[in-house]
Every structure is written in structure tokens, then in C-alpha cells.
Amino acid sequence: MATKIDANAVRGVADNILKIMAEHRATFEALKRHWPNAGKFPLAVWLERVADDRRNAVGAHAEHLELAFFGMGAKLKTLADKFQNTDGENATAIKNLLSGLEKEVSGMISTSDQKTEEKQRNYSGKGTPSDGDGYNDNLSQEVR
Questions:
Q1: CA 101, CA 12: separation in Å to the nearest integer?
Q2: Of 53, 62, 76, 98, which one's alpha carbon is 20 to 30 angstroms from that of 69?
Q3: What is the DSSP-derived secondary structure letter of residue 128?
Q4: How far out from the chain centre does Cα 94 lie?
Q5: For position 87, what pLDDT does the model report?
Q6: Region (Disordered) spans which residues (predicted)?
Q7: Torsion angle, CA of 113/117/118/120, rounded to 10 degrees?
């Protein structure tokens, strides 16, 4: 069975995949600047920590999606370039080209997560872990 590729169509799909997060990146960036100010009593501090954690998780999820879409788009463009003028029994070659995509994207996500852990900070400005506002607190300390 012969495999034939419409290279321009594949490039179009790659471009569309790459646009998905580009169109929404500003929304996720804007989310980083917002945090609640619930007060300086224990329940308020706890609530701020939870909200901060969830906001950071949404941002990290968006970064993971962006890395996955970037990996897919890049591979599809490579596939289109490599097989543009090729016809015949290409299924194995195409499978080999795409086989490492999942591992490659997983590696990019792991690297991104490590960088995030190294530089994690909240957006309240100052590094004052004992000011009771719930931001950049030492999470191993009891909330009082």
C-alpha cells in the first residue's frame, strides 16, 4: 500500500496547531498577575495559598500544552519537508519520524517543570514569607 502526503496540507495543520496557544497566551500571562487578598487571619491565608496554587497550576498546564503543541507542530513541519516529493512505501519512515514525539514532549515538560520549581515565585513582589499574606510563604510552617 502506497503512502502519499499532501505536504502543504500537513504544513497547514502544523500552523494551526502552533496558533492554538499563541492566540491564548496573553490570557494565561494576565492570570499570573492576579491574586486574592483575603485578609491576615489563618483561614484567609490558607485560602490565598490554595488560590495561588491553583492559579500556578493553570499557568503550568498552559505551558505544558504550549510545549506539546510546539512539539507536534515542529514534527509535522519536518514530516512535510522530508516527504514532500516522496511517494511509495513511506509508512515505516513516517512512523519512525513521529515515534519519538511523545518522549520528546515529555522531556520538554519535565525540563519546564524543573525550571519552574527552581524559580517559583509568587507575584506579590517581595520575598517576605512571614508577613501573613499567603504569598511566597514557607508552606511547611503552620498557618496561625
A1: 19
A2: 53
A3: -
A4: 26
A5: 56
A6: 105-144
A7: 120
Return the DSSP state at 30. Answer: H
Domain ranges of the chain: 7-115
Angle, CA 98 vertex, CA 94 and CA 101 arms, to 5°: 175
On whether the CB atoms of residues 35 and 124 are closer than 8 A, the answer is yes
Specify the amino acid at residue 81: D
Q: What average pLDDT does range 82-92 have in this prediction?
A: 66
Question: Residue 41, Cβ neighbours under 10 Å: how many?
Answer: 12
pLDDT at 101: 79
77: Cα within 13 Å, side-chain hemisphere: 11
> Do residues 79 and 5 touch, judged by C-beta distance below 8 A?
yes
pTM of the predicted model, to two decimals? 0.66
Are the CB atoms for 18 and 69 separated by under 8 Å? yes
